[in-house]
Amino acid sequence: MNTYGTLFRLTTFGESHGPGIGGVIDGCPPNIELDQEEIQRELNRRRPGQSKIVTQRKESDCVEFLSGIFEGKTTGTPIAFFIRNHDAKSKDYGHLAHAFRPSHADYTYAVKYGIRDYRGGGRSSARETAARVVAGAIAKQVLRREGIRIWAYVSQVGEIALQKAWHELNPEAVESNEVRCPDAPTAEAMIALIRQVRKEGDTIGGVVSGVIEGVPPGLGEPVFDKLHAELAKAMMSINAVKGFEYGSGFEGAKMRGSQHNDLFYTDETGRIRTRTNYSGGIQGGISNGETIYFRVAFKPVATLMRSQESINEQGEKITIEGKGRHDPCVVPRAVPIVESMAAIVILDFLLRHRAYALD
Ligand SMILES: Cc1cc2nc3c(=O)[nH]c(=O)nc-3n(C[C@H](O)[C@H](O)[C@H](O)COP(=O)(O)O)c2cc1C
Ligand SMILES: C=C(O[C@@H]1CC(C(=O)O)=C[C@@H](OP(=O)(O)O)[C@H]1O)C(=O)O
After folding, report:
1. Going by CA atoms, what residue is nearest to atom 15 of ligand 1?
2. Where does NADP(+) bind (predicted)?
3. Rg (CA), the chain
4. Max alpha carbon distance in the chain (Å)?
5. What span, in angstroms and rounded, lies between the C-alpha atoms of 356 and 359?
6. Which residue among 61, 83, 101, 127 has the greatest number of ligand 2 atoms within 8 angstroms of its CB, and so is best to mutate?
7. Residues lining ligand 2, Cβ inside 6 A
8. Do residues 140 and 148 make contact, with C-beta atoms less than 8 angstroms apart?
9. Distance CA 115, CA 123 (A)
10. Alpha carbon 82 to chain centroid distance?
11. 3-state SS assignment for residue 276
12. First CA to last CA across the chain, in angstroms?
């Protein structure tokens, strides 16, 4: 479906080469003073054309709010918004009207619907994620009032992996370079690799790490809607995502219980804490009050600036030319998308948690 969330719900609409992209947020709490410039700043972090290592499509991505906000505050009614497309170059997609790009969504959309907007991949384009960033920026502002902070950063591009854990990093440094890795020497190496790959007409994958601090204990449902299950779904719903892990993740499979167990203690304020955090802040699908941290793996972008073998709608062998403006690596622009999806999930669970208490 085109809607996500239980109490804080986002519906998105639009295509990459249609008039624009937008959304409707239902269930946002009323009387929240919104900083609209901050929402625009978040969109600017995702915007195409923001640097030399991303797609060169030039969009201002200016968001226009149509409802749900009065005198700068949320009214509790649906918040509808629209972002107009200004720089779609649809002629770059003419050769794909009856052909399928390898590993994009052209074939699966054609087989599912029997009709597709081939221009820019239509609805399968990551342009849709602009709407998620608007909702995420609003959710983040609500969560900040609750002392919850969400941040993400690029921790890997190809084989270049940041060798520091989240707690050794300065979140303020994420925006200090165009790849969004908060460690300057690693960022430099990542940028050089993306430039090199782009020069070769190729693309490369990467990892975005996410951190959620200040989550109270008790968020999440115990069986199906486990907090980590919803985070996984939210992250896996982002274009080009191939993997999600939280806490010790796949590394945990190599460990023994005696190493992996997070031992409890009571701190000086009387709060129950754990000495280690292999659980990643979630036990039994419910937050335990420790920091939630996770990793999201993105594949290399499917559209290459070189020719590739493929087939057309008749199943005949063809060669697809590399054309248009594409990201050589998605992770620099995926950082605000990951933060946004995390914020939407956490706010939704916070509202669900509050619904348990009547006073
Ligand atoms: C921020 C971002 C930017 C992307 N840019 C491109 C792009 O320029 N070209 C492209 O072919 N795919 C791009 N993608 C990936 C496609 O949208 C994605 O591969 C496609 O929808 C097929 O879905 P799947 O890879 O999840 O199976 C991007 C993804 C993200 C998250
Ligand atoms: C437009 C955006 O990124 C696009 C994401 C995308 C894809 O296939 O996902 C392919 C390219 O689309 P187009 O060729 O139509 O410009 C990117 O530029 C955006 O993120 O706003």
Report:
1. 240
2. 46, 52
3. 21
4. 70
5. 9
6. 127
7. 16-17, 48, 55, 57, 59, 88, 120-121, 125-127, 130, 239, 324-326
8. no
9. 12
10. 19
11. coil
12. 34
Place of tokens 């249609």: 18
Residue 74 to residue 77: CA distance in whole angstroms: 8
ipTM computed for the complex:
0.99
Beta-carbon neighbour count of residue 67 at 10 Å?
13
Ligand 1 within 6 A of CB of 334: yes
Residue 308 near residue 300 (C-beta atoms within 8 A): no
Taking the CA of residue 90 as reference, the ligand 2 atom at the shortest distance is: 15
pLDDT above 70 for 358? no
Across the strands, what pairs with 274?
264
The whole-model pTM stands at 0.98
Let me know: does 163 contact 187? Beta carbons within 8 Å: no
- Indicate which ligand has the atom closest to the C-alpha of 323: 2
317 is in an annotated binding site: no
108-133: pLDDT as tens digits:
999 999 999 999 999 999 999 999 99
Residues in contact with 102: Cβ distance below 8 Å, sequence separation at least 6, in sequence order: 302, 308, 309, 310, 320
Phi, psi of 81 (to 5 degrees): -150, 160
Q: What percent of the chain has pLDDT over 70?
A: 99
141 pocket-lining for ligand 1 (C-beta < 6 Å): no
**What is the model's pLDDT at position 356?**
80
The number of angstroms, rounded, from the C-alpha of 161 to the middle of its chain's C-alpha atoms is 19
Domain borders along the chain are 3-354
Kindly report the CATH class assigned to 3-354.
alpha beta
